[in-house]
């Protein structure tokens, strides 16, 4: 010990778990495939299904002569808009990260991107909590 400080080499070793690939092409394919699949299956497919189903519902509601149809149309539009507002920022961040994945970047920029991904992913998860509130209070 020098000057009352503990020797840095006597600390408990820390381990990092990571995926290792046999070839660079497998690593490249996997690093691109996972976020691309997440974008397609986690955002674009649900958005397409929501738009299709809710369009059919709105068409049916507009044909009805019910006085509350406008309220139901507002709920449908609110659900779709909240989905887009919650999930779009995360998916844009994920797309940006995927496109720039293999480019050299500064540590500060990469740290900011990681923070942005965490914050926007939290907002995307918040969507699950907002749906019941929308149906309860907007409907």
From TrEMBL:
Asked if Mitochondrion is a keyword of the record, the answer is no
**Which Pfam families does the UniProt record give?**
7tm_1
What Gene3D superfamilies does the record point to? Rhodopsin 7-helix transmembrane proteins
Q: Which UniProt keywords apply?
A: G-protein coupled receptor, Membrane, Receptor, Transducer, Transmembrane, Transmembrane helix
Subcellular localization is given as: Membrane
Q: Which residues cross the membrane?
A: 39-62, 74-92
Q: Which GO terms describe its biological process?
A: calcium-mediated signaling; cell chemotaxis; immune response; positive regulation of cytosolic calcium ion concentration
The reply to whether Membrane figures as a keyword in the UniProt entry is yes
One annotated GO molecular function is: C-C chemokine receptor activity
Every G-protein coupled receptors family 1 profile domain range: 1-135
**Principal location listed in the UniProt entry:** membrane
Give the source's domain of life in one word.
Eukaryota
An example Gene Ontology CC term for this record: external side of plasma membrane
The protein's name is C-C chemokine receptor type 6-like protein
Q: Which organism is it from?
A: Lates japonicus (Japanese lates)
């Amino acid at each position: 010990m020098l000057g009352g400080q503990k020797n840095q080499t006597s600390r408990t070793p820390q381990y990092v778990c990571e995926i290792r690939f046999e070839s660079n092409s497998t690593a490249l394919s996997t690093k691109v495939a996972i976020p691309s699949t997440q974008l397609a299956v986690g955002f674009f497919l649900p958005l397409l299904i929501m738009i299709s189903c809710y369009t059919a519902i709105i068409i049916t509601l507009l044909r009805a002569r019910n006085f509350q149809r406008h309220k139901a149309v507002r709920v449908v539009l609110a659900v779709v808009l909240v989905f887009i507002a919650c999930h779009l920022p995360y998916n844009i961040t994920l797309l940006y990260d995927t496109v720039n994945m293999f480019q050299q970047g500064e540590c500060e920029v990469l740290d900011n991107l990681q923070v942005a991904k965490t914050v926007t992913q939290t907002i995307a998860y918040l969507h699950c909590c907002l749906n019941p509130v929308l149906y309860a209070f907007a409907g």
